[in-house]
Amino acid sequence: MAYAMDLRLLPSELTSIAAIQDSYSKLGIIVNDIESYEKEVRSFERSQAEGGMILNMVQMQADETGCSKAAAKRVLWVLCREWELEHLEMVAKREASLEGCSETLKSYMKGLEYILGGNEVWSRYTRRYHQSS
Questions:
Q1: Are the CB atoms for 76 and 57 separated by under 8 Å?
Q2: pTM given for the model
Q3: Tens of pLDDT along 24-77?
Q4: What whole-number distance in Å separates Cα of residue 46 and Cα of residue 52?
Q5: How far apart are CA 82 and CA 75, in angstroms?
Q6: CA-to-CA distance for 80 and 86, rounded, in angstroms?
Q7: What single string gives the DSSP state of each residue in the chain?
Q8: How large is the C-alpha radius of gyration of the chain?
Q9: What CA–CA distance (Å, rounded) separates 60 from 72?
């Protein structure tokens, strides 16, 4: 993303936002798992691989809690929204930190936010995950 935005970040700047980058990675993975779950189930049912299993957070949440797949998705969406709030708090703290926050770093962090939002919209509407009726 830094390349596409023509941003030149110092290694120390990237190190200072490692937790923010991890937060976005976690969110992106969970959103993808929520939206791709049915596709993964269909693929699994078609393959019938011996010893195979679905490695998806929806399945894991349902298995761990004993709730339905639909309930697991709802719980994961709530968790994602809470992580988004935590992420915004981390960004605000980094921007207000005593070490300072360059405009380049602010742009980079905003870019991460845009990427995550785009990932959610794409995951929600792509035919890759959702078959048309």
A1: yes
A2: 0.84
A3: 999 999 999 999 999 999 888 888 767 678 889 999 999 999 999 999 999 999
A4: 12
A5: 11
A6: 10
A7: -TTTTT----HHHHHHTHHHHHHHHHHHHHHHHHHHHHHHHHHHHHH--TT-----HHHHHHHHH---HHHHHHHHHHHHHHHHHHHHHHHHHHHTSTT---HHHHHHHHHHHHHHHHHHHHHHH-TTTS---
A8: 18
A9: 9
